[in-house]
């Protein structure tokens, strides 16, 4: 008489990124990423041009209504370049974080049927957001070339890579954490867009952070790592001074690392029951 055997597959460790497992499933990462890109622009009239139009239209609106308010503190580069560079960094963060949470729910049928590292979902969301970022970044380089070609000579690759890593860690941290929460409580699917909108105004996307109360500014700089990410992005492009002391830089990175570990631990813990709760 044949006996049915039941195999239960569980994550190897809550504290592990599962790098080896992700490498084994690298083809699936590609499939998820490519599918996300195709879904995003499926049945659109102008397709990938939306990637370019969205930050440009936002930049034009902000430049038209807020340039007189904020450009006084920005003298190194034209205000529209300052805004556009902040917007593309911010869009990388917000798009990746929001898509990670939504994809946990939209991929429910796949999650229930087969096993694969669940980290692939937020990771593929980040990679698909990278495609949009690089297209927008090329447009930014064209703007810089048109405005002042000499700025290309000031481009700092190390700062640029550092900014991308920091923004990516911010996106993964919040994406992992809220992806875990939304499995049990669907309300967080609506909380995240509000939180991201709030963070937009607490980050130097359209203005330089300058708060009269030094303690508030200090706490904002430390506990919102997107401040460092966007500032580094601008520093890499425009050779702007980085408004961080060495102590602030170290503490901000440690806080970002703690955010990431909290998000990773919460997500890995959720993997134990994600197929049942989703």
Tell me what you see in this structure.
With 278 residues, the chain is mainly alpha-helical. The chain is built from twelve helices and no strands. The chain has helices spanning 19-24, 26-41, 49-70, 79-106, 108-113, 120-147, 157-184, 188-201, 214-223, 226-238, 246-270, 274-277. The longest helix is centred in the N-terminal third of the chain and has 28 residues, at 79-106. It is globular and about 55 Å long.
Number of helices: 12
How much helix, percentage-wise, in residues?
A: over 70%
* Series of H and E elements: HHHHHHHHHHHH
What is the β-strand count? 0
Radius of gyration: 20 Å
Indicate the low-confidence ranges by residue numbers: none
Query: What is the general shape?
Result: globular
Biggest sheet record: none
Portion in beta strands: under 5%
Q: In terms of structural class, how would the helical and strand content be classed? A: mainly alpha
What's the short version?
By secondary structure, the protein is an all-alpha fold. 72% of the residues lie in helices and 0% in strands.
List keywords for this structure.
single chain, 278 residues, mainly alpha, 12 helices
Give the secondary structure arrangement, pairings included.
Layout lengths: L18 H6 L1 H16 L7 H22 L8 H28 L1 H6 L6 H28 L9 H28 L3 H14 L12 H10 L2 H13 L7 H25 L3 H4 L1
Helix pairs in contact: 2-6, 3-4, 4-6, 4-7, 4-8, 4-10, 7-10, 7-11, 9-11
